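Narrative of activities, Objective 1.

The group set out to show that a structural description can be obtained from nothing but a protein's sequence at a throughput compatible with the screening campaign. Below is one input-output pair from the validation batch, recorded exactly as produced.
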Amino acid sequence: MTAEHPTVLIAVPPKWAPHWAVPLSELAPDLRVLATGRDEYDPRDVDYVLSFRPKPGLLKSLPNLKFVFSIGAGVDGFFADPEYPKNIPLIRFVDRSLSVEMAQYTVMHALIHYRQQRMFDAQQKARQWRQEYIAKPARETRIGILGLGEIGTMAAERLRDLDFDMAGWSRTRKDVQGVKSFAGAGELGAFLARSDILVCVLPLTDETRHILNARTFAQLPREAFVINVARGGHLVEPDLIASIDSGHLSGAALDVFQTEPLPETSPLWTHPKITVTPHVAAISHPKIAAQQLIDCIRKERAGKKLDNLVDFSRGY
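Output recorded for this entry:
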């Protein structure tokens, strides 16, 4: 960094700020690092913002803001701000480790369901030794991935290599070896009809919001299983519970929710056929994110093209 001491404002809950403030200060000592809720600052001094879900109106209040860096792969938290200044570039955090962790989570829960591990957990608790269950061949289990971007493709490839019958659905046609591609609204029904396990890794946009609903579930095969690692906004939670309770769906594994943290009163916590995890499928590594932000600042100050820019027209 130069001696001008560019200023980064970290806009996250105060208790989280040190996770990024410390590596930023270590990697770029000339960088001035501030945090909302912790430090006083003049809005005119802020050059860059690092955030995930900034308070609505915050970004608009910074007159000299040059770009915003998202510490997550998803950027729907920024679009939730109706006053986001669309002339300010928004940069996504992109790191292979996120895709790997999301693929791990997906494979783990697909296998837990496929191998009926929850049933064996119950048998262990009851001290029952039962060997009646024999899993059908993996190639006879059809898994569908909603969203064949980097994360969805990696998950599909890992499951394909475990011999599952794989397909993916996306906005446009994809070419992934061993994964049948469905594209567009016109092919969604056919994709759903062949998905014994449905995995959602879509970006959250106006078009994909509430895509996991009663109508979608009704198009899945009976006893299908749902895994959502994308965003809580994709899922209509009461529809999922109703579809499971009716016997049409066999269960679900959820890492994301309409309201986070998940309220203690939510029936999802105690539903016997739903697994809940607290949005931990993949966690951005602060040091890697800090280095990426520093690299972006150097490029911006040198007048170079920035990578991983969000397309506001598409929502990701």
